[in-house]
Amino acid sequence: MNNQASQQRLNRRYRFEKLFKASAIAALTLAASFLIFFFYTMISQGFSALSQTEILVEVHYNEASQKSYKKAVDKSYRKIVSRGWLRTLPLYMEDHPEIVGTSKMQWVTATGDVDQYMKGKPNRLKSKYKKQIDQLQSEGKVKLAFNVNFFTNGDSKMPELAGIKSALVGSILVLLVTMFVALPIGVMTAVYLEEFAPDNRITQVIEVNINNLAAIPSILFGLLGLAIFINFFGVPRSSAIAGGLTLALMTLPIVIITTRAALRAVPHTIREAAYGLGASRWQTVWHHVLPLAFPGILTGSIIGLAQAMGETAPLLIVGMMAYIPDTPTGFTEAATVLPAQIFTWAGESIRAYEERTAAAILVLLSILLSMNSFAVWLRKRFEVRW
Amino acid sequence: MNIFDFIFNSAAALLLLAAVVGIAVYQHVVKSGLTARWHSLPLYYAWFAALWCFGPAFTLFFFASALDLLHLYTANTSFLLPATLFLSIAGLWHGLRQLKPSLRARQSVEGAVRFSLVAAAGVSILTTIGIVMAIVFEAIQFFEIVSLWEFLTGTHWAPDDATEGNTSGMFGSIPIFAGTFMITIIAMLVAVPVGVLSAVYMSEYASERVRNTAKPALEILAGIPTVVYGFFAAITVSPLVVKFADSVGLHADFTNALTPGIVMGIMIIPFISSLSDDVIRAVPRSLRDASLALGTTPAETIIQIVLPAALPGIMAACLLGISRALGETMIVVMAAGLRPNLTWNPLEGMTTVTVRIVDALTGDQAFDSPETLSAFGLGMVLLVITLMLNILSIYVTRRFRSQYE
Lengths: 386, 405
Fold this sequence. Notes:
heterodimer, A: mainly alpha, MetI-like fold, 3 domains, 16 helices, 3 strands, B: mainly alpha, 0% strand
């Protein structure tokens, strides 16, 4: 009798054990399936933006089309050929006067709606043009080609011409500013706090400060950038320098914290050996501690910069979501960054932008993932176990 | 010429000059080292001379640009050019005059190094002070227009209707904070169970191989930019939520509070799981062994022994997760909607503090309009809440941390 009751209790406990383990596995599987689902949707949506519909049409390079770009193609093609591409013709003819007066068959970018129709996605193409496209397709005059525009153009109001180049260049400029401001100051602060600072009240206050700074939501750094850099110091709005400085403040605590961890990982014996040989404090740090901590510092910095590169909210506040069709050439020019470009495209009502948004996300993710895996590789490669 | 262009160009020229001086001094010291006994290594003399060459002029540049940026005084080039020339020549002369074997160059150079390290540390403190000051100053301007009491207790938020003179009743922040907390709670309902249970599995049950693949995979989830999560929420999750609600006979807005909550939860999972994993692994083996030796099942050991021991760390992780969820911007901007809405129904659109901040500052409002200033008011409240959560999490870990030997 008693035996049976205890057997029951035991069974119940074992059942609970199984249940608990199963739920723990389920949680991890759930997290993993989020990841897989996420990448699946992004890749399936973004992949199609790598190709772009082109149509084989006869383009007339003559005076009439120089005056009115629409006349470069026959009337029946005017609604299916990208107007943005036609618009570039007069300038092209100015640069290449020898071509005027000729006409030739060439592959031309189609409109966004034609492109979406070709890819079997929702579109607003009229049935008349759908028939025309089907007709052209049976003649082999329509094809999906690699989307060069996506990588060589800036933003555009016409989805078929919109590309990520200006945003990518803007991201690089912003990241350069961030790197040149945050890395030296961050590493120097960490070296001071870890190797030189006396352990007193002030140092403790600084420590608490830095930890708090790391926990502040990124959008508040945007408020700081707007109030101080733009309104007070007069840094040009939406420029790479305004964005870069704002992100630098955000990255600073990350750099400081990781650098301090890297410095702390260097064992004390190294320092004492250096002191024993008569090295000064700075010589010890410069010749022994810093080189040993360097891989760790580099890893932390790359991770911090990758985080800065994916950041959007503070940059929206300092005005980096402007429409920037041209590639910025300097730090004070209006620029946009890749995440901000993703944000503006995501808000576009034209459906053709959706796949471009996903493709831009794929580009951003591959950059960030390669930065992060490079950092992890560095850590693995140069990690020293003391 | 802009003074910054001038400063940039002359700084480059000075550094070049300093390099030349440094190399010359280095060679001089090396050569005369055969006959005289110099106190420090030659490199220190080179640095000593170079520092005297560009140091004084750089100090001038620093103050000139600081004064200019603070709008106190604008130095013109016709003053800066002779001053720079004078300072660098006088500095160089002064430095070279001291250059003799008895000069303790290492001490001087190390002093300068230490000074620059302290200066760098100063900048990072100034940042903290700056962020607080910037937000508080603007927030004070806002609270001069709108009383704090009304801001904290009002239930109507309509900054678009507010004009210069008439702001009463337009800036009640309760609906905004209600939306923020609603989305945060949904996010934590997703993130805490999944995060903690994954951490339990990884640290207690999983083989080393599973752990070594699962942990980096979760870190990938942590490295995805928030704007990408926002797009994912708006394009993929939101229609799913609407469809699901329809299938059970409920109506959901396309910009509902549930979608950003769920996606934000996914975003916070790796944060909570990796912090929890660390604290669970820090619980000493001996506690588990003792419990298992008494005949408990692994699950009982985990629930009754390991998790209570790790609880302070897990709680701190959750608090930090909450502060992240409160300050998260892009997901809610893209998926949560703009309408301040006081409701208990997560299927309706709600707005959050961060959405209103972005909305107020990306429009074409004048900088001192009440709407723009309201962003700083909201920002200040957000700052205070985050800092309090952060301090609370530090307190929890310190207060309840058990010391194991």
